[in-house]
Amino acid sequence: MIIRKAILPDVEEMYELVNYYASKGQMLPRSRSALYENIRDFVVIETDGQIIGLGALHVYWNDLAELRTLAVKNGMERQGFGKQIVEFISKEAKELKVQKIFTLTYQPDFFKKLGFSVIDKASMPQKIWTDCINCPKFPNCNEICLEVNIN
Ligand SMILES: CC(C)(COP(=O)(O)OP(=O)(O)OC[C@H]1O[C@@H](n2cnc3c(N)ncnc32)[C@H](O)[C@@H]1OP(=O)(O)O)[C@@H](O)C(=O)NCCC(=O)NCCS
């Protein structure tokens, strides 16, 4: 098992993984174009040459970043892969001197286990809503916002 930064040849498998859950309404869809453009945000877990998990750190401001597009392949959950991705991303965020990571999710209990706390979405800066306005669920979204201080 290798956890590493994503590279361009990973995109097709990343696309399949994200859009599998997006088709079930569990996360936002991502186009191939969005994955290529943001490839440097992404971390992947690879086993036997297959991508089985991914997650992204997207920086917004001098102290704030989002952990997003986190997914572990169907059938591979609850084996610690999600946690490893969050830990890898948190380490990267620390190195960048990010102060706070937030996430928008339907899985708040997973993030609470990793030290995140629920906050009021409305308290987040407008800058973070770029993704939301392109989402079919906007403005009636029931994702929960959580954050963790890391530096
Ligand atoms: C949510 C998700 C990323 C979790 O990944 P995972 O690899 O299954 O999680 P882990 O095995 O690393 O779990 C870490 C801890 O959280 C717990 N946990 C995992 N999923 C959980 C959930 N949905 N609710 C509550 N606790 C959860 C685990 O039991 C484990 O607890 P422990 O340390 O006490 O044993 C994964 O289930 C997934 O990809 N879901 C579909 C996509 C999705 O909903 N993404 C969410 C972000 S948008």
Shape: globular
Ligands: coenzyme A
Low-confidence stretches: none
Through-space gap between termini: 28 Å
- Describe the sheet with the most strands: 7 strands, mixed
What value does the Rg take, in angstroms? 14 Å
Strand content: 25-35%
SS-derived structural category = alpha+beta
Q: Which superfamily, in CATH terms, is the homologous superfamily? A: Gcn5-related N-acetyltransferase (GNAT)
Mean pLDDT: 94
Helix content: 25-40%
The CATH architecture assignment turns out to be 3-Layer(aba) Sandwich
Describe the protein in words.
There is one protein chain. With 151 residues, the chain is α+β, with helices and mostly antiparallel strands. It has one domain (2-149): Aminopeptidase, CATH 3.40.630. The protein is built from five helices and seven strands; from the N terminus they run βααβββαβαβαβ. It has helices at residues 11-22, 32-37, 81-95, 108-113, 130-133; strands spanning 2-5, 42-47, 50-59, 64-72, 100-105, 117-119, 144-149. It is globular, with a radius of gyration of 14 Å. Coenzyme A is lined by residues 21, 26-27, 70-72, 77-83, 105-107, 109-110, 113. Coenzyme A binds at residues 21, 26-27, 70-72, 77-83, 105-107, 109-110, 113.
